[in-house]
Amino acid sequence: MTADQLIAPARPTLRERYDTYMSRHAALMPTFAAIAILILLLIGAQFAFGNFIAPRNLSALLLNNAYLIILAVGLTFVILTGGIDLSVGSVMAFTGILCAKLLADGLPAIVAVPIMLLGGAAIGLLIGVLVQYFDVQPFIASLAGLFLARGLAFVVSLSSIKVEDPAVLWLQRTRFTVGDWYLTPTGILALLVVAVGVYVTQWTRFGRTIYAIGGNEQSARLMGLPVARTKVLAYVLCGLCSGLAGLVLTAYSGAGYPLNGVGTELDAIAAVVIGGTLLTGGSGYVLGSLVGVLVYGVIKTIIAFEGADPSWTRIIIGALLLLFVVVQRVIVARSERRR
């Protein structure tokens, strides 16, 4: 055995280990940061108010933000492809008021709910076709969808329509309790959507194709992946989630209203970005979007506890969004340097 063979290989330095870890797990860093912020917010609120991390308060956090969670999951699919959908808030309002109108006209919920979901999916399909086959920028195409959905909401009704159907109201009024914890069917729907979103993105060919499109659409085409079909389906799924969010919000408020969801699309996009999904596409996680919504909900609850002006929610979320966009740019720049 030679002397060279007897010499043990040099152990990697701490810096080398850090670089290796970052290169393998860079996509997870924004999500980890969002989780850390959520934990710090909860701990800080507990110290400030004493009873913030209480079962009923945390249960209400999910209940109050169930519709936003569903919107964020749908948007995650679109943003992972490198696109954007500004229509989700308006589609939510349109499907909600449509459902309320159909129920008020005597249609049973078993008929009205599928119609509203199909309405959301149809607008998503329209946006997807404009983006994929007419080469319209996602921002412009979804902006057209926003105006279309909001206009349709006002065509259905100019005023609020109360919902009295027991099947729809059951979604919100029913409580499944375990001690001081409780869960409503709307909360269960939101968690089911998250679970399905995680499964589809991580363990299906469709999900892998979405990541491939966001990473490099041209390369995805050269690999023979169904790029066109996948991109259109991503927008259809986003529209479907918006319709489901409309059902959840209608059950939550007990009425449909054409002005529901104004600005909600920005809240949902902010939650997705804070949760670690890159706006350029190709990197992000549905669970991260859930964390982003919870961060948004905790901040809103803290401000309500303080009795401060609700506009501070927008200010803080805007600052967090700016921070996470900067973090994303740093991660992307480092990844490009390593190639």
UniProtKB/TrEMBL annotation:
It comes from Microbacterium terrae. This is Inner membrane ABC transporter permease protein YjfF. The chain crosses the membrane at residues 27-49, 61-80, 111-133, 139-161, 181-200, 232-254, 266-299, 311-332. Keywords: Cell membrane, Membrane, Transmembrane, Transmembrane helix. GO terms for cellular component: plasma membrane. It is a multi-pass membrane protein. It comes from the Bacteria. PANTHER family: ABC TRANSPORTER PERMEASE PROTEIN YPHD-RELATED-RELATED (PTHR32196), INNER MEMBRANE ABC TRANSPORTER PERMEASE PROTEIN YJFF (PTHR32196:SF63). GO terms for molecular function: transmembrane transporter activity. It is found in: Cell membrane. Signal peptide: none annotated.
